Amino acid sequence: MITLSNIHKTFNRGKASQVNAVNGVDLNIGDGEFVVIVGSNGSGKSTLLNLISGSTLPTSGTVALDNTDVTRLADYQRSKWIARVFQNPLSGTASELSILDNFRLAALRTKPKGLSIGVTDAFKLDVKDRIALLGLGLENKITQPIGTLSGGQRQALTLLMSVMDDCKILLLDEPTAALDPKSADIVMKTADQLSRDFKLTTILVTHNLKDAYSYGSRIIQMVEGKVIKDIDTKHKQALKQNDLFEWFG
Ligand SMILES: Nc1ncnc2c1ncn2[C@@H]1O[C@H](COP(=O)(O)OP(=O)(O)OP(=O)(O)O)[C@@H](O)[C@H]1O
Q1: Which range marks the domain in which residue 46 is found?
Q2: Which atom of ligand 1 is nearest to the CA of 48?
Q3: Which residues contact 53 (CB under 8 A, 6 or more apart)?
Q4: Residue with the nearest Cα to atom 25 of ligand 1?
Q5: pLDDT interval class at 45 (50, 70, 90)
Q6: CA 49 to ligand 1 centroid distance, Å
Q7: What is the 8-class DSSP label of residue 145?
Q8: pTM of the predicted model, to two decimals?
Q9: Among 6-15, 20-29, 92-101, 239-248, which is the least confidently predicted range?
Q10: Contact residues for 130 (Cβ-Cβ < 8 A; gap 6+)
Q11: Mean local confidence (pLDDT), 219-244
Q12: How far apart are CA 45 and CA 39, in angstroms?
């Protein structure tokens, strides 16, 4: 589903501030894998996600999604494959608009410009059914401005909205970093459930090793822009949580 071949990303090339943020990464991620990327600050995790999403283009190397070379495609041109959720719960939604209107906008994300989606009874029912899956009782609040919800509720809805339109890849960049433990738990469980229900290929960047252990089918460690450890599904299954803490702690 995702193939990175000898990817490099250098910022500020030729200047004193030059950084080799991603430094020769080869990675093959198969359909339906839940990959967790861990590594210390500045090791290149977010840059790697940006290279996959297209919000950053590589200095060299290639990116393929679903066997299509997308190396030179911008992020909006990759949006039919990719949904992305960031750290800040405010970044994925429009505060003043109702939950329902936010879902309407999300449904339009990858549709041709000029297309509109009316808030029909069928659409409302579909949104309510999807929200009910979260088990947070938010299906009865769909006319409420989304800005009135807690960060965790909002992030769970952002996740749900991000997979409204048949995308295949879900990129999660520290989606729980700004949340309290209970909200973080809800968001991670939602991500896991959506990933399974929609058979998504998911990549999570996190500093939380417990989440990495609980949710990852594969765990990758980055250091200085390189992948230095890649624990595949078979080895992950045999792994104890403590092993992970010893390696990365
Ligand atoms: N747009 C940019 N311009 C210049 N340098 C950048 C840019 N984006 C990232 N970098 C640098 O590239 C390196 C990798 O950054 P990146 O954000 O990918 O690391 P990270 O592993 O996600 O870190 P963190 O865990 O702190 O979020 C860092 O040294 C960072 O300062």
Answers
A1: 2-248
A2: 18
A3: 75, 78, 82, 84, 171
A4: 41
A5: very high
A6: 11
A7: B
A8: 0.92
A9: 239-248
A10: 103, 160, 164
A11: 93
A12: 7
Instruction: Name the pLDDT band for 112 (thresholds 50, 70, 90).
Output: low
Total number of domains constituting the chain: 1
Report pLDDT for 43: 97
CA–CA separation, 199 and 95 (whole Å): 29
For ligand 1, is residue 9 a contact (CB within 6 Å)? no
Mean per-residue pLDDT, 73-101 = 88
d(CA 150, CA 120): 27
Ligand 1 center to 160 CA (angstroms): 28
Instruction: Kindly give the number of the ligand 1 atom that is closest to the alpha carbon of 40.
Output: 25
Instruction: For residue 200, report the phi and psi dihedrals to the nearest 5 degrees.
Output: -90, 150
Is the ipTM of this structure higher than 0.95? yes
Q: Which residues 6+ apart lie within 8 Å of 51 measured at CB?
A: 4, 7, 9, 22, 57, 58, 63
Token readout for 70 is: 């997308």
CATH classification at residue 46: 3.40.50.300
